[in-house]
Amino acid sequence: MYRFFLLCSLALILSGTLVLDSCQHEPFLLIASNGADPTDTGGNDTTSQTDSTVILCSPDTVYFRNTILPLLVSNCSMSGCHDATSHKEDVVLTSYASVRSTGEIKLSKPRESELYKVLIKNDPKERMPEGKAPLPDEQIAQILKWIEQGAKDNYCNECDSTQAAYALNIRPIIVKSCQGCHSGTSPGGGFDFTSVQGLQTVALNGKLVGAVSRLPGFKAMPESGKLPDCDVSKIREWVRNGALNN
Ligand code: HEC
Fold first, then answer.
1. Which of 6, 37, 82, 213 is 20 to 30 A off residue 102, Cα-Cα?
2. How many other C-beta atoms are found inside a 10 Å radius of the C-beta of residue 4?
3. pLDDT tens column, 121-145
């Protein structure tokens, strides 16, 4: 059954932009993935995964804590909406427990889950987020895929910052953390990141790396807090490689 749903959703999943890429990392793994000697960690074999705190990020899995919770927090559980105080329609989307207990998730019929259905309603009055543009297709597909994969409280923390292709690795970061402001009729700072060209402009003039690395002389982005180190590393790597539309 599980396979069946996976197959059904393959068309949606095929877009490489769905791949999870926002990973927190164990510092030594980042070093290892940059080509340094992994035995620097004290002689342990880092590839054997004996340390139970290290969880490899699989590109085929959508992780709740890495992807789904940040997405819900930034789009749904702001004050006045689905936070613990306001809990509109008794829906609270601030933690795994509250998402599972109030999101009406149906593991046997993922597409029947309220958490998913409200995102794809045609009637803007019924669709979430209320009064706003629909979530990007990539994010809607991630939510569905997470439900199809069992709606688990999962996460991963192994990062490979050399994975820095635009469609697969960079765009999901931008969609999740930047596009909310950097799109529409008056995008932040006049920079629209809905197309790769918009992002390339700030990549090539140095502002992108300056902003996400929070270097002096640049506006720190996102304003609310630094991206995970792994995301920053991937962005730097992408820019270093020429900010290609790859
Ligand atoms: C909450 C809204 C918001 C979010 C989220 C946001 N930005 Fe911005 N961004 C702005 C605004 C507004 C400006 C213009 C700031 C100014 O000029 O005072 C800006 C400016 C910038 C600049 C120009 C910086 C400079 O020094 O001139 C870059 C580059 C940028 N943003 C990248 C990003 C990236 C990358 C992300 C996601 C990781 C992001 N922003 C997330 C609102 C946002």
1. 6
2. 9
3. 999 888 998 888 899 998 999 999 9
